[in-house]
Amino acid sequence: MTKYQQTFQDMLDYNSDLFSAFTKVHELYLEDAKKYQAQFNELGQDILEVIRKYENMLCNTSEGGKYGKFSSQLSDKFWAVIRAKFPKIDFIGLQ
Question: How far, in Å, CA of 93 to CA of 9, rounded?
Answer without folding.
Answer: 25
